[in-house]
Specification:
The protein contains 24 helices and 30 strands. With about 725 residues, it is an alpha/beta fold. Helix 8 packs across helix 14, helix 12 packs parallel to helix 13 and helix 17 crosses helix 18. The two termini are about 45 Å apart.
């Protein structure tokens, strides 16, 4: 239905008329060209109807019928039949089990929603029909409009990736908001989202789910790579802003469309009342952020302008009886401060203050400010008109300081996501010497022996091939061999249980440290073997590893990698040692990595601040740590056979980083590199050398974002005639 001038053809074998429209018994009886079908029958009939629509050359169908995969195996089989029928004629399906679709730009309502959305420039996508109706009701209450309103349902065919790709090209769409439960084709989704989020904001509210497996629990990496965190990581690399509440969906779509992105995290809070200013600062602190430190020059100007008892800092409390002119001057002084990346203006009605008049006086000045501006006129009906004039002027406004601070935090995070979105790591830095051939042989030999879990010395050899420093590790299968290796290594030494079937050595008291004498080694060997057999009676035990005892580390870190069945390879970093899974100070990133992405991966952890130096502990060489993460990312990029990789601990002592323990699981790869990645790596395979006809060498490679400045310089170097011939 809708106000568009559409021909509607009811199809039902039992009726001659439906809603006073002539009804035919079969799709083939419709004489005119049909663009879209809406199927609302028992789901058992849908495959046949989809086939009939395909024969009629109908381009798409919305299937609202329920009873598909959500009802069990039988429903799943019917959905497969629906898809097979559609693919025979290239017909696209939305649904089944969906509410339908609405497009206000063309006055189309092909849904059974009880409400019709207001026109707008925001597109909304959802898997859940129930969420659609709730959002529609809330949007009407908040006076929020939509360009498109799409319920995707079971996504048997058309999914989020398809819709993002389509909406990205629609002029009526300024932003895309989504309620998501799952992603069907993550690689397609990332490709579409990374392309569209560069030109239109994408905001997602995703419900949390977890997926666990016995194999995943067999390592530190698998135990911590929870699926919801992987979604967070993927959204960040795709330039998508993730929110946690429906209210944020609407807020996000509006302020992202209106506001420029802040250059930094410095928020200056200006308020006419102390309480709301403190609440805003507290909200900022809850996100790990602080108010901008205003310069001495700005503070001196405010001292000369404001009453003696103003707050003399940020938040800038100008007090309730300060005239509007002083509020305006305060805004201008704070906006000019180099530490101010965004402004938050708070107004709480006090005495005879005219909140509407203040808003109207501020608007012309706020429209000339070069940084993002948020306003919070706190209250109900008394200040509603002021918020309305802010909205009409294109200035973001809220009814609480906390909501405004959350919007700033989201805008800042969105800007960082977009910044990371443009990072395309090159295949390798010329300084990063790696031996891919050696690593390939190690994996090839292990696969030939059906060795799915590399022994520690083999795992370390693999790491060493990619330039990751390891300590020397020898394997002894008898007490005498352990003693001989200990003497050769030099005391003190460490013995560790060596078994593919024991995931964590400390779980069975399988580690003996600081062994200083031959007797210590013999006793430790016997005890370790006895402990292992007691705790893991069915385990195949190779022996023990013998290593030199390391000095007490400044830090114990953890680097891991896991090939998730949906997200592909994921890199993990955080606090290491036996308490890795207890503290869970872990961040995740998607390979390939470069220095900026590796630095972000480190910076997301709590331990990052300690790594910069703490008390008598020297700061770590961050560039070296970033390089190790890049190397691990490259290893995971080059070898899709690697399922799980653990480096725990990565010991740091006097600036030296060493992988003291390592564990690697491998399995046959289902696809070759780089098809296992959800973010395409730099296409090095298209690089080539050539020669001109007169023998001059040249190098051809794909373009990179970093080439933008070179292209601009090249353009400016062209003569006027060259520019004319190129473009006109």
């Amino acid at each position: 239905s809708g106000k568009g001038n559409y021909d509607v053809f009811p199809v039902n074998p039992r009726h001659r008329k439906v809603f006073d429209r002539p009804c035919v018994s079969r799709v083939q009886e419709i004489e005119k060209v049909v663009d879209m079908a809406v199927i609302a029958t028992p789901i058992q009939m849908v495959p046949e109807l989809v086939a009939a629509c395909g024969e009629k050359s109908i381009a798409g169908a919305v299937v609202v019928s329920s009873g598909g995969r959500e009802s069990g195996a039988k429903g799943q089989a019917i959905e497969e039949q629906i898809l097979a029928a559609a693919q025979k004629s290239d017909l696209r399906i939305i649904g089944p089990n969906c509410l339908g679709i609405m497009n206000t730009a063309v006055s189309l309502n092909a849904s059974f929603a009880h409400l019709t959305p207001l026109p707008g420039n925001m597109a909304f996508l959802s898997q859940s029909g129930a969420v659609c109706t709730s959002v529609l009701d809330l949007a009407l209450q908040e006076n929020v409009g939509f360009s498109h309103f799409v319920s995707l349902g079971s996504m048997v065919d058309v999914d989020f990736a398809d819709m993002i790709d389509y909406l990205g090209s629609q002029r009526s769409v300024a932003s895309i908001v989504m309620y998501m439960e799952d992603i069907t084709h993550i690689r397609n989704f990332m490709s579409a989202a990374r392309a569209v989020s560069r030109i239109k904001p994408i905001i997602v509210l995703k419900s949390g789910r977890s997926r666990a497996g016995a194999k995943a629990a067999a390592s530190h990496t698998g135990a911590m790579a929870k699926e919801d965190i992987l979604y967070d990581t993927a959204f960040q690399r795709a330039g998508i802003l993730r929110v946690t509440e429906f209210e944020e969906l609407f807020d996000g779509a509006q302020f992202l469309a209106k506001q420029q992105r802040p250059k930094g995290s410095g928020l200056t809070i200006i308020t006419n009342a102390g309480g709301p200013g403190v609440m805003a600062a507290d909200a900022l602190a809850s996100y790990g952020m602080e108010p901008a430190p205003l310069s001495r020059e700005t503070l001196d100007r405010l001292n000369a302008l404001l009453p003696d008892n103003w707050s003399r800092g940020n938040p800038v409390d100008i007090l309730g009886d300060t005239p509007a002119s002083a509020y305006i001057d305060t805004v201008q002084h704070c906006a000019a401060d180099p530490e101010t990346d965004a402004l938050l203006l708070i107004c709480s009605p006090a005495g005879t203050m005219d909140t509407l008049a203040l808003a109207e006086l501020l608007i012309p000045h706020l429209q000339t400010v070069s940084c993002p501006v948020f306003t919070a006129w706190i209250g109900g009906d008394n200040v509603a008109k002021a918020r309305q004039v802010f909205n009409q002027a294109g200035i973001v406004t809220y009814d609480s300081a906390e909501r405004a601070v959350r919007a700033f935090k989201n805008l800042y995070e969105y800007g960082k996501n977009i910044e990371r979105l443009t990072q395309i790591p090159i295949r390798t830095d010329t300084k990063l010497i790696i031996h891919r051939d050696i690593a390939g042989k190690i994996i090839q030999n292990a696969m030939a022996e059906k060795d799915t879990c590399l022994l520690e010395n083999t795992a370390k050899a693999l790491l060493e091939a990619y330039g990751i420093p390891v300590n020397e590790t020898k394997i002894a299968d008898t007490r005498e061999a352990a003693l001989e290796m200990a003497i050769r290594t030099g005391f003190p030494v460490v013995l560790k249980i060596c078994s593919r079937d024991i995931p964590h050595k400390s779980d069975c008291s399988g580690v003996a440290l600081n062994l200083n004498t031959p007797e210590d080694v013999k006793t430790a060997y016997s005890q370790i073997m006895a402990n292992a057999r007691q705790h893991f009676p069915g385990a195949h035990i190779t022996g023990v590893t013998v290593q030199s005892m390391q000095d007490r580390a400044d830090f114990e870190l953890f680097i891991g990698a896991k090939k998730d069945p949906h997200f592909g390879p994921v890199i993990l970093f955080g606090m290491g040692g036996v308490l890795t899974e207890v503290f869970k100070d872990i961040s995740m990133g998607l390979p390939p990595l470069n220095r900026m992405l590796a630095a972000h991966l480190i910076g997301k952890t709590k331990i990052a601040s300690v790594l910069k130096g703490f008390r008598n502990i020297q700061p770590i060489d961050m560039a070296r740590l970033e390089e190790l993460l890049i190397r691990v990312g490259r290893l995971m990029t080059d070898f899709p056979e690697i399922e799980i990789l653990d480096i725990n601990p990565l010991m740091v002592k006097n600036g030296v980083l060493t992988a003291v323990d390592a564990r690697v699981f491998i399995a046959p790869a289902s696809v070759p590199s780089p098809m296992h990645l959800i973010i395409s790596s730099y296409p090095w395979q298209y690089e080539s050398l050539g020669e001109t006809v007169d023998g001059q060498p040249f190098f051809i490679r794909p373009i990179r974002p970093s080439d933008a400045d070179l292209l601009i310089d090249h353009f400016h170097s062209l003569s006027s005639r060259s520019k004319y011939m190129r473009f006109f």
